[in-house]
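In this supplementary section we document a worked example of the pipeline. Step one takes a protein sequence of length 271 as its only input; no multiple sequence alignment statistics are reported here. Step two produces a three-dimensional model, which step three serialises into structure tokens for compact storage. The input and output of this example are shown verbatim.
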Amino acid sequence: MGDKYLRVANIVILAVLLVSALVFKKWEHVNYLWDCVYATSLLLVVSVVSWALASRKYLTTIIAALFVKNLRLSCSYLYKINVGDYYLLVKSRKHSKYQPVGGNFKRNQYSSSFLSNIEVKKDEYFTNGDRSAEDLRLFIKGSDLQKYLKWYNAPNKQREVSYDREFYEELVEPGFVSGKIFPFPKIDFRKQIVTPVFYSEHLKCKEVHIYDIVELIPTQKQKEYLQQLIDKGNTDNYIWVDATTIRNEGYQQAAKGSQHHITDHSKEILV
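The serialised model returned by step three reads:
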């Protein structure tokens, strides 16, 4: 039996004991009932505190999600690729805005059991042919968010765990960077971000986004190669911008406007 159901059972038992103690208050052994009420209350407090401590990192998000019937999750990774003060952003394949290299993690053959158990619904908002097949973009009951996060971050992950795929698809495959210079990306994991529950005006639903932020650790040869790309200037497919421009979502005071439109989540790589 899961922890959630144990807490529910604890509450039911506590309610029964409390009502019994009040109804049979003149019973000569009613003190035994009150002792049971106190003991059950203590167990419930311990259980709730234990749950809160285990979930403390994302507690406010988990609590807010409890009241959401259909919660959209988008689980992805973003690359921090910078040389000096400049960060690399690529044009999205879904829209004209620029954003960090990265994309959604995918399910694998081991994901089905858990995802079926919590009755996930497929997200049909974004499709990109075969590239978006099996993406971890889905709808769950908000009350299952804590359970999902525990599964998502379990040591024996039952999902895609590599960060290489989108690096290849967004940079190497289209020829923006050389596959010979970057046979594979060497990275450093920086942090995981779980956003608060928020309402998407565009999609008309409540969402939580999970981002793994990874930083490219280039060799000296790779760093020199990237510097050459910066020196050549921006293209329609990718741009190099500073942190202030990313925070301002492309708005540049000197230009009195937005030369490049940048997604709001791009600022997450500024860690």
